[in-house]
Hints:
Blueprint: H1 2-5, H2 13-28, E1 32-33, E2 53-55, E3 61-63, H3 68-83, H4 107-116, H5 119-137, H6 142-155, H7 158-161, H8 168-188, H9 193-213, H10 221-234, H11 238-241, H12 245-253, H13 257-282, H14 301-309, H15 315-318, H16 320-324, H17 329-335, H18 337-355, H19 375-378, H20 380-388, H21 394-414, H22 419-427, H23 436-442, H24 448-451, H25 460-469, H26 474-502
Antiparallel strand pairs: 1-3, 2-3
Amino acid sequence: xxxxxxxxxxxxxDDEIVFQTTASLVDHGSLAIAGIGHRTGEPPGRPPGTFxxxxxxxxxxxxxxxxxxxxxxAPMYAxxxxxxxxxxxxxxxxxxxxxxxxxxxxxxxxxxxxxxxxTHCFVTAATAWLLVRWLAWLGFSARAALWTxxxxxxxxxxxxxxxxxxxxxxxxxxxLAAAVAIAQAHALRAxxxxxxxxxxxxxxxxxxxxxxxxxxxxxxxxxxxxxxLWPFGAGLKRxxxxxxxxxxxxxxxxxxxxxxxxAALLAGLGLGxxxxxxxxxxxxxxxxGRFGHYSEWTFPWTGLWAxxxxxxxxxxxxxxxxxxxxxxxxxxxxxxxxxxxxxxxxLATRWLVVSARTDWYGGWSLGPRHLVPAIPLxxxxxxxxxxxxxxxxxxxxxxxxxxxxxSAALTGWLATRSIFEWMxxxxxxxxxxxxxxxxxxxxxxxxxxxxxFTLKPDVLALGAVRLQQAGHPGMSIGFGIVALVGLVAAxxxxxxxxxxxxxx
Length: 504
């Protein structure tokens, strides 16, 4: 599904910088890059060609985005390098040629960009699987867990973001992986303490890696720590804490001491390596390379309400399946309070911190870009709603499933067009009058939901069809194989849902 709506190209200047870092890692074992050769996303006053990188102490250029995605995408780049000599030239022409590009167009480079741009198709699929596993470990039924995974993949911004090479899809996967490991630790503590400790170590490693994907993921650490500690605090009595707070807490944590210490050390190792890398490159462990050119602290009011209700940025509009899950939030709090509070606290902390920055909107992206990593965890409300549905009236059940279908239709539509192309159209629209960002945030007429009707589809699969019509069927055959695999996977999920329904 994700591969069928992928554009096969790098759409954002941010993505191009991360792509160049990926290429440098694989080809040269270095983080140094060349940068983009023409003006792209530089703020006013900055020289053309300086977007996305800063000069290090050694005089070389380094991207200021997290390097975690480059590490994950390295196998895709290596695959592109291995296959480039044998791939037909025509395949590199399947990508739409009328788009703004950030690299010099030539066959080898186009193929590398095409293959690497598909990274998040696989990452997002893995995130949906992890979501199903998390809910299963929390005790939700197979039916609820599977439907929630399907709804996340098809009915939220996860689908259109799988088209990009931005960091948010990988952030979602890594943070969810940490939550899965913690849920497993909770479930295994009584029967297998050693296995529970190992799961906590995995959670710590995931949290440590998350800050390399995007430094904003650091704000998730207190939420994940609270989630890990929840069972130990839940059993404490108030009278036990009076006068001997620390001693009582340490005693309660004793069964998991090794796991918690190991998790803290691994998370600290991840953060320490990030700070060391920044010190080696820029001479300051707290300098990411942005040097204050791209954002600053501001009053959060605009970002706070815009990311909730603005037509161009509302979380609930661009993650409609998660919005449906609001009806199950109270049930989720009763059923899995620790996991639900993790989801809510992770959303709240990201929302507050991001809103206090002048770049809260995340550039020319779709919807609330910086809140996308919280969406899979928020889907716990959807799972609880599915569990409650059998006790609802037939009319409520029909309305709920109609909402699920509508969610998939909306996000599937958003996954077939380019938000970057739409933002260029807004920039050239006289009605924006130099206020393109404000217009894109707050004007209903500027919402991509409606605006995408004016754009051509931007999917690689259509390029493959055009190649077939021109006598080059190879890529279409590849997409046919992808379709068959997808149908088999859908059949397996459908069978599992049928069995879960029959055994309910």
